[in-house]
Amino acid sequence: MRIGILTSGGDCPGLNAVIRSIVFRGTRLYDHEFVGFRNGWRGVVEGDFIELPLVRVRGIGKHGGTILGTSRTNPFEGPQGGPENIQAMMDANGIDALIAIGGEGTLAAAQRLHRAGIRMVGVPKTIDNDLDSTDYTFGFDTAVQIATDALDRLRTTGESHGRCMVAEVMGRHVGWIALHSGMAAGAHAILIPEKRVSYEQVATWVLDAQGRGRAPLVVVAEGFVPEGEESAHSHRGLDAFGRPRLGGIGEILAHELEERTGIETRSTVLGHIQRGGTPTGYDRVLATRFGMAAADMVTRKQWGQMASLRGTDITAVDFDNALGSLKTVPEDRYREAEMLFG
Ligand code: F6P
Q1: Is 283 a known active-site residue?
Q2: Nearest atom of ligand 1 to the alpha carbon of 171
């Protein structure tokens, strides 16, 4: 078979490890040929791809980003978009099937294309770790490690100045990065999209921590909605899928805390630093195993399915069972962390 690979949506560390392992296993074991579409669905819609022989993917597993590029293009939009056009492009180039590596937006588009008859297999990726059908996605471990390191650094400068430090991390719908990095760094408050908390309550935790002689450290996910507010803070318009671009809650929170506590407060947005650079060993291994599973899945013609981690096993799940609900932080996981606040 001749198979097209694409990476779409926000990038994350480990994408290159997936590409490498699909091509290695698919070429060595099954004699498939591979092409890589440039810039996610945009390349699919425009028929813009490169050949991916083994030699092209050697040694890339440790590199961040994606050698194919990515975008937030919607494959159903534009004059060349939609399943008929995409199938025609595949036929014209002798491409039998696609492997889409992406998060909820990308995989939902893959599901629609599969329903329209395109041979499709998925590989889940997101630093947010919000896909319900897999225990972990690669990229998450790297993001948590980067955030934890940043929090440790904020802590020492906060201690030197006796300041309260607020760190804003990514997490559009779910607070996994905030929860794990905050717990690892011993944050005095962790604020996540799943849990409404009042500024008053956060100020109490901050004052408690200061009262014990600590420099308060607060971690807030970009999607956090403070009690009394309608939705997450956004002032940068919408992305290609019509979702608000988030970011900025950390600064608002810092101002509210300084007002309420009288403690000098600084905020830092970690932003895309969490998505950049080399993947951790854990993410490289998970990404490699997902890639191998994807090569097996196309060979077995498991169309409309995606790779998934269950415990320590890699399995395949139908898009229809995998998508549609997010893996949010459960109440008991938040309660567990909350015990350590203040
Ligand atoms: O979906 C992953 C994510 O990193 C979110 O946490 C964040 O809201 C979004 O991507 C940022 O997207 P962009 O790279 O388009 O700014």
Answers
A1: no
A2: 6
Region label for 272, one of left (φ > 0), alpha (ψ between -120 and 50) or beta (otherwise): alpha
Query: Where would I find the beta strands (DSSP E) of the chain?
Result: 2-7, 33-37, 49-51, 97-102, 120-124, 164-169, 189-191, 217-221, 265-269, 305-310, 313-318
Q: What is the CATH number of the domain that holds 298?
A: 3.40.50.450
Domain identity same for 38 and 153: no
Alpha-carbon gap, residue 129 to 13, rounded angstroms: 13
Tell me the three state secondary structure of residue 177: helix
Task: Say which DSSP state 244 is in.
Answer: B
- In a domain, residue 339? The reply is no
- Among protein residues, the one whose CA lies closest to atom 15 of ligand 1: 10
Residue 216: domain span: 140-276
Beta strand spans in 73-201 (E): 97-102, 120-124, 164-169, 189-191
User: Residue 275 gets which letter from DSSP?
Assistant: G
The values of phi and psi at residue 182, to 5°, are -65, -40
Q: Does 259 share its domain with 190?
A: yes
Instruction: Confirm or reject: Cβ of 239 under 6 Å from ligand 1.
Output: yes
Of the candidates 203, 249, 197, the residue with the CA atom closest to the CA atom of residue 223: 249
pLDDT tens column, 54-108: 999 999 999 999 999 999 999 999 999 999 999 999 999 999 999 999 999 999 9
Whole-angstrom Cα distance, residue 63 to residue 78?
32
CA of 28 relative to ligand 1 center, distance in Å:
35
For residues 191 and 197, is the Cβ–Cβ distance under 8 A?
yes
Rounded percentage of the chain residues whose pLDDT exceeds 70:
100
Query: Which residue puts its alpha carbon closest to atom 8 of ligand 1?
Result: 172
- With H, G, I as helix, E, B as strand and everything else as coil, classify residue 331: helix
> Residue 172 maps to which CATH number?
3.40.50.460
Q: Each residue of 26-57: pLDDT tens digit?
A: 999 999 999 999 999 999 999 999 999 999 99
